[in-house]
Amino acid sequence: MEHVVPYLQYLEYEKRYSPHTIDAYRRDLSHFAAFLPEMGEESGMVDFKVIRRWIVALITEGKSPRTVNRKIATLRSFFKYLMKKGLATVNPMEKVGLLKIDRNLPVFVTADKMDELLDGEAVDPGDFKAMRDKLVPELFYMTGMRLSELIRLKESDVDTGAMTVKVLGKRNKERVIPLTAPFCDTLKQYISFKRSTFPGAGLLFILDSGKPLYERWVQRLTDKKLGAVTTMKKRSPHVLRHSFATNVLDNGAELNAIKEILGHSSLAATQVYTHSSLKRIKKVYNQAHPRA
Question: Looking at 264, 279, 283, 289, which residue is catalytic?
């Protein structure tokens, strides 16, 4: 298709999307472009019927509704760009709706289990590996940050005096998240020891070799740590993010505050945690109320 390259450049330089997001858009558009000649269509003849056939083909291939909706969102963005730049006169995506998705409640670890994980492990402050392996899951739970955000954290992003950490989120949006005093004390010990062992390493968390962390390593660490306190199958950094949001909401935090800490662009994404809390409230009510 025409105009894909300038569109991707627009996402990179004007919208400031991450390389990961741009690659996903590129793959979706390439897949759609490859579909057109299979149907005997030209790139300039794209209309609602063509897109509908493409969606049907995706469903027939066994693509999940979530995957199909992501591809639909990519095309919506692309044709919106073409209209904005005057490169198209008709937007074929106007009549295209999203597939219905059954929203699953977030998987989370209860507060008492998280306390068991974080408080039940004594760590030698002179053991770099043990301190790092304890701080990584604890920082996830303390802040609700994403895996990609934690991996990119630099020492300079942490202000132990102000008890805050600066996070670079999606679309390069910065947010500042508060930390607790005890956690900052442990973090200062870790940073001091890290500097003496790996002088010049700017990233906050690094491997034993001094190289940057990578996603699979963090996922394995998280799986191991959570496996010590829970038998649930899903044990990932995102579970810790869900655990943070659910548990602070249960303790009375305002939804807007959680939204800002998580870096959500809209309140709708944060509201899923209210459903999770309400489900547990109903369960407790039904178990405890004398007339339930």
Answer: 264
Q: What is the CATH number of domain 111-287?
A: 1.10.443.10
Q: For 124-254, where are the alpha helices, taking DSSP H only?
A: 128-143, 147-152, 181-197, 215-227, 237-250
Alpha-carbon 6 to chain mean position = 27
The distance from CA 94 to its chain's CA centroid, rounded to whole angstroms, is 28
Run of H or E residues at 13: helix 4-13
* Domain 4-84, CATH: 1.10.150
Q: Which of 194, 235, 241, 242 does the annotation list as catalytic?
A: 241
Q: What angle do CA 225, 106, 75 make, to 5 degrees?
A: 115
Q: What angle do CA 256, 258, 262 make, to 5 degrees?
A: 120
Give the residue extent of every domain in the chain: 4-84, 111-287
Q: Assess whether 238 carries a catalytic annotation.
A: yes
pLDDT digits (tens, 9 = 90+) for 80-115: 999 999 999 999 999 899 888 766 678 899 999 999
- Give the residue from 197, 209, 198, 215 showing the smallest Cα distance to 150: 215
User: Is 241 an annotated catalytic residue?
Assistant: yes
pLDDT single digits (tens) 103-157: 667 889 999 999 999 988 777 877 899 999 999 999 999 999 999 999 999 999 9
Residue 69 Ramachandran class (φ > 0 left, ψ -120 to 50 alpha, else beta): alpha
Catalytic entry in 146, 194, 235, 242: 146
- Known active-site residue 289: no
